[in-house]
Design brief:
Blueprint (H helix, E strand, L loop, with lengths): L1 E5 L5 E5 L11 E9 L2 H8 L14 E9 L13 E4 L2 E2 L5 H4 L14 H7 L5 E2 L16 E4 L7 E2 L6 H4 L5 H10 L8 E5 L3 H12 L4 E6 L2 H9 L3 E4 L5 H8 L7 E4 L10 H4 L17 H8 L5 E4 L12 H6 L3 E4 L4 H13 L11 E4 L3 H10 L7 E4 L1
Parallel strand pairs: 10-11, 10-13, 11-12, 13-14, 14-15, 16-17
Antiparallel strand pairs: 1-2, 3-4, 3-8, 3-17, 4-5, 5-9, 6-7
Helix pairs in contact: 5-6, 5-12
This protein binds nicotinamide-adenine-dinucleotide and zinc ion (ZN) (2 copies).
One zinc ion binds next to loops.
Protein name: Zinc-dependent alcohol dehydrogenase
EC number: 1.1.1.-
Family: Belongs to the zinc-containing alcohol dehydrogenase family.
Length: 391
Amino acid sequence: MRANTWAGRNKVEVRDVPDPKILNKRDAIVRITSTAICGSDLHLVDGYVPTMQDGDIMGHEFMGEVIEVGPGVDPGRLRVGDRVVVPFPIACGACAACAAELYSCCENSNPNTGIAEKMFGHPTAGIFGYSHLTGGFAGGQAQYARVPFADIGPLKIESDLTDEQVLFLSDILPTGYMGAEMCDIQSSDVVAVWGAGPVGQFAMDSARVLGAAKVIAIDKEPYRLRMAEQAGHIPVNFDEVDVRSRLLELTGGRGPDKCIDAVGLEATHGSAHIAAYDRIKQAVRSETERPHALRQAIMSCRSGGVVSVIGVYGGLLDKFPAGAWMNRSLTLRTGQCHVQRYMKPLLRRIERGELDPTRIITHTLPLDEAERGFDMFKNKQDDCEKVVLKP
Ligand code: NAD
Ligand code: ZN
Ligand code: ZN
């Protein structure tokens, strides 16, 4: 089959690779009809995640048709022919974390927990296409994928919604929603979102759906800010204005009630978290003058407010403003998204027309053009917001 693979720092390459096979009795094989490029893939391409190997298949946002199931897959839940969206965290459905609906912390889905233990002090769950840190699972930017615990994660789509309407249930719609849900939004709340990428856009839409009075979009890309503005959110360009001052102006001098970091690693530009890990020492770059989203969110949030972090972080973060966090009674919440928890309720919201995930798609390309898709998305060319690939 054809698959988009990691080919060294800042390089992906579509290659011929062996088709996946059923390895465990609860596996399924999915023929992929749509897959997408995510901001998280950029961390792999950048080399910030030190555990990719040449030839690893990328991609964790995908959907398609089940073409084969292992003998242990419960036929009451999944059968050949089903059309499914696959959540990015692989979860067993039976461990203590899964029982608590903390699916992205599943204790049974990562067969190689050594790296995670070394980095984070604890094992992490398996994730498709996300390096050997999270199990080395082949990803979904391919014609086919092997899906473990197939009768737990995948969401069956039984209506005639298009792929474009449901594909983002695999990751970024639940992630944006979880970012807003963690804020415990009240009807008078002003919610500020750092990052107007795909995840940020969905965090903004979710904040509105959950009742926020005002939603503010912070980024520097004019076209991304325009997209947020067209969806009804208030744009703030951090290249043009001092973000904290502007936020105080917009909130009667108190700061936003709730702040969402939908940026993550990009803004840390090297610094301590990279220097901490031997294998990525090469990647250290000097810290730039660019504002750091998480620090700025903590410094801007009103006293007693919530800072919700859905941007992905990999290791250490220096200059964490612990004083502001503690003395102003802020709540900090975060996590890789527990996608399985949100798929069904968000599908209902899509069906009811409360959320329109298609609004962020700017490019649809054949899988063979994945490299061009990555270039456009990474370098913000051609007003690229979200790329969908068709295998
Ligand atoms: P993206 O790279 O397209 O978007 C990030 C945006 O942040 C860009 O538009 C960039 O211009 C902007 N930005 C950079 N520095 C900023 C700053 N200091 N202030 C404000 N904006 C700034 O990526 P995306 O697909 O939207 O993903 C965003 C983040 O969410 C990534 O870190 C990704 O890994 C993470 N993510 C997390 C989960 C999860 O489960 N928690 C799931 C998916 C993605
Ligand atoms: Zn993603
Ligand atoms: Zn589990």
